[in-house]
Amino acid sequence: MPIISRGFHGRRPADDRKLPPGQFETFDFPVLSAGPTPHVAQEDWELDITTEDGARHSWDWAAFMALPMESPTVDLHCVTRWSKFGTEWQGVSLDVLLEDVETAAEFAFIHAHGGYTTNLPLEDLLDGQAWIVHRYDGEDLAPEHGGPARLLVPHLYLWKSAKWVRGIELRQDDEPGFWESAGYHDYGDPWREQRYQGD
């Protein structure tokens, strides 16, 4: 059963910032999860990228933290209709993580602690569009927001930015993840309002 915090209120931005259709600005950071919050210690965390041929690339926390970091500032858009402008993160670009990974895959299937999954075209993780982030607003990422590390793909609805990320499976075929199997859109572009299958 999804766990969704309710009661936050949004409004349209007063300045010239743009909202995708059907969205309202919030100054909160609502917590929405598909189940209980996993608590994974940094020393137990590991990220695996597995290619379609079974080749496995892994980083423990120390190896991940030794990679070049970026500090993206991005807007977030949740399928539940809230948007939050100018969020500040720190993490590693997927371009860095995939730099030495040989693949002809077209899709990525994301695995998270707690059993959550989501699917994306691989091209949506490249060219400075996605990160594995471990800090938010100058602080270590809190467990309720996906700490110790989560995927961040801000140009898509936020359910595609899997919290508690632990693995990326590169595939030739597309397979729906948790919310996609429940009727959410396979792609999830907020500017095209792709909330549900058929949108």
From TrEMBL:
InterPro entries the record matches: OxRdtase_Mopterin-bd_dom (IPR000572), OxRdtase_Mopterin-bd_sf (IPR036374)
Source organism, top-level taxon: Bacteria
Domain Oxidoreductase molybdopterin-binding: 35-179
Gene3D superfamilies attached to this UniProt entry: Oxidoreductase, molybdopterin-binding domain (3.90.420.10)
Name this polypeptide is given: Molybdopterin-dependent oxidoreductase
